[in-house]
Structures are given as structure tokens and as C-alpha cells.
Amino acid sequence: MSQALVIVAHGSHLNPDSSTPTFDHADTIRASGAFDEVREAFWKEEPSFREVLRTVEADEVYVVPLFVSEGYFTEQVIPRELRLEGWDVEQWDSDGTSASHTTLTATDVAGKTVHYCGPVGTHDAMSDVIVQRAESVTGDPEVGEGFGLAVVGHGTERNENSAKAIHYHTDRIRETGRFDEVEALFMDEEPEVDDVAEFFESDDVVVVPLFIADGFHTQEDIPEDMGITDDYREGYDVPATVDGTNVWYAGAVGTEPLMADVVLERAAEAGANVGNAISRVRAETGGVVGD
């Protein structure tokens, strides 16, 4: 039986780079041969959520949201736009970070079974991507000892699950003992990333934003808020020194090539036959930049 993967992401009318990670990860998975078809779909770009299932020929479709947290988009917008019949968020049986998958049909595409997965941002493998991001920005595959790690989220009163995802991965990475310190920081709630140096005793701190794509927040707000540059247009040093602390700013975690692995893991857990694609993609994307 043929199977297809559909990666759904937000996209942007304003930032042409917003969709780049989605296309990059789709290309990686496409090259692995795990699926007969791999499609991308967006809320703010083409191809759209609403049309994408009509472009798929496979009988079994695995839909993986390239979103950080469970919330408005994963629970309402995507199921509505895909017209998933019988969808109810209770089918995920989640506490805010544990959505897995559910099997449904779409009302306007006959003969297809749709396996709707939880977002990549809450999958356990995302912790590995955050660590990989720290390795990439420092160029050190053993980075950890002598370093602090800040996992940064947006923070919002509109979606309490947004912060849950940040704390979830912060706790998981802290428990490994790899870094001297691991803290969750936010843009719009306490503790704020503006004061990054105050939350660490380490001389070196890697800052990894749990965002899918680089955009206004990761390229402009966070660098300026942290004080590693006065004007984002002039760029910043990596590392940059703030109040005596060397800040290694990594940019959006979703741009890390290892993200393709998380998408595959989500689909495999929903029943997709991916063969040895997960181990191969991990091997291909797990190296430090410059290796």
C-alpha cells in the first residue's frame, strides 16, 4: 500500500525564509525513499493546508505539523483546513506535551486514511535537535562541560502549552547532566531572555530558540534583547560577550538538519513504514557544521 508524508507548517507572507526549513526537511526525507510521496503545505503560503490532500495519490497519509507546541494551529486550524472528519483533541489524550497520533478520514478525499500526528516540537527527539544545535553553533561535538544552555521560547498567555514545550525539553536536557546549567527563558514572560547572563554562572552560554524558522523574533528581537548587537542589521559575533558572559547564539532550532529525523519519528510512531530511514537520516544530519 502506498504511503505519503505531508509536512504542514505556518509559512509567512512577509518572510520568504520562513518556509525554507520545511522544504529542506522534506527534501531530506524525500531523498531517503521512505515515502512514495512527500508534500509540503502552509497556512500563509502555497500550497495551502486546504488543498494539499487533493494532491496526494497515496492511500495512507501521514500528516506531521512542523509546529513547536500543541495549541490553536495543531488543535483547530490544521484539522479544520484538512477537513479531518471526527477530529477531537481528546483523541490525542495529551497533557500539553504528549500528543502522539490519531487516525481519521478527510471528508473531501475518498479512499484515504489520514494519520494525524502531534507537533514535532513536543517529541522527545527534539531534545536531541536542541543539543545538536548547540554542537553546530560552537563547532564542538562534545560541547557541554563548562557551558550553560538556554532554551528560549516565545511565551504567551494565549497558549499555556507554548511554555510547557520549552520546560519539557529543558528538563530532559538538564537530566542528562551534559551541560553545567540548563535554563528555560522566554521573550514575553519571566524569566526573560533579555537578562540571559544573570541566569548563568557559566562563562559560556549557548542560546537556542525553540522556533521552527528564523524570522523577526529570532533574527531581530532576541539578538537585540540579549544585547549581542545594537542593530540586528549589523549582525553579531558568535560568541558575543554580554556582561562578561560569552553568548553563543544559535538561531532557530528548526533550521537544524536533524529536524528531519523528528518528522520521521512522528510518522513512524503513527504506523508509517520508514525502513531504516531514521538511522540513515540521523547519520546524514547529525554531524557538526564544518565536519
Q: Helix proportion of residues, in percent?
A: 25-40%
Structural class of the helices, strands and pairings?
alpha/beta
Strand order of the largest sheet: 2-1-3-6-5-4
Radius of gyration: 19 Å
Q: Within the CATH hierarchy, at the fold level, what is the topology of the largest domain?
A: Rossmann fold
Percentage of residues in DSSP E strands: 15-25%
Low-confidence stretches: none
Q: What is the CATH architecture descriptor of the largest domain?
A: 3-Layer(aba) Sandwich
CA distance, first residue to last residue: 39 Å
Number of helices: 8
Return the string of H and E elements: EHEHEHEEEHEHEEHEEHH
Shape: globular
Chain-averaged pLDDT: 94
Number of strands: 11
Number of domains: 2
The largest sheet is: 6 strands, mixed
What does this structure look like?
- It is a single chain.
- This protein has 291 residues and is of the alpha/beta class.
- It folds into 2 domains: 3-122 and 256-285, Rossmann fold; 125-255, 3-Layer(aba) Sandwich (Rossmann fold), CATH 3.40.50.
- Helix content is 31%, strand content 20%.
- It has helices spanning 20-32, 49-52, 72-81, 125-138, 160-176, 216-226, 259-269, 277-285, and strands spanning 3-9, 37-42, 60-65, 84-85, 101-106, 113-117, 147-153, 181-186, 204-209, 240-242, 245-249.
- The chain has a 6-stranded mixed sheet with strand order 2-1-3-6-5-4. The chain has a 5-stranded mixed sheet with strand order 8-7-9-11-10, with helices on both faces.
- Strand 1 (3-9), helix 1 (20-32) and strand 2 (37-42) form a beta-alpha-beta unit.
- The protein is globular and about 60 Å long.
- The N and C termini lie far apart (39 Å).
- This is Sirohydrochlorin cobaltochelatase.
